[in-house]
Design a protein that fits this description.
alpha+beta, Alpha-D-Glucose-1,6-Bisphosphate, Chain A, domain 4, 8-stranded antiparallel β-sheet, 4 helices, 33% helix, globular
């Protein structure tokens, strides 16, 4: 990853700790133990700069955002299958134990992170669903988004969240 913090690169290099990866239809689930408290993991999940690094689909915020908040909608842009895309990222729910977001554009991408305290750390379960937002672009790009997840994007997501939370680079 370009511009990755050296501490993150070292932790990400040890990313072979994924405990569970499951795919059924348009739903994907990954779970892993993170050696950081839930508050720090949630800080990573709600920090816009961190989101840009860990979100499974390329996603950049088009406005200044200090923290993702429940009920808010943010304009984003990115690329998928060589196409520039604009989408809205809605924070559907957020509290100390989970966050649920929806990226709505030609492809609708729902992601929920469930956080459970486990000793001094956190058991995290990341659930993702991909479906078409309609139109020809949605029909063409949805399989590309699913292919990214099948090819390891969700595994990368969990490893990136773990790396940032365990190094404490994102302030909690």
């Amino acid at each position: 990853m370009t511009g990755q913090h050296p501490k993150l690169a070292r932790v990400a290099a040890s990313a072979g700790r994924l405990t569970h990866l499951h795919h059924r239809g348009d739903a994907f689930t990954a779970s892993e133990h993170i050696a950081a408290p839930p508050a720090r993991v949630l800080a990573v999940l709600s920090d816009p700069e961190a989101v840009r690094r860990w979100f499974p689909l390329p996603c950049a915020f088009e406005e200044d955002v200090d923290r993702l908040r429940a009920g808010e909608v943010y304009k984003t842009s990115g690329r998928l299958a060589g196409r520039s895309l604009r989408a809205e990222l809605s924070v559907l729910e957020a509290d100390e134990s989970h966050i649920a977001v929806r990226l709505s554009g030609p492809v609708i991408f729902d992601l929920t992170a469930l956080l459970t305290p486990a000793g001094a750390g956190t058991d995290a379960e990341i659930r993702a669903w991909v479906h078409s937002g309609g139109g020809l672009s949605g029909k063409l790009l949805t399989p590309a988004a699913s292919a990214l997840l099948l090819a390891g994007a969700l595994t990368h997501t969990v490893a990136a969240i773990r790396a940032e939370a365990e190094t404490g680079i994102v302030a909690s």
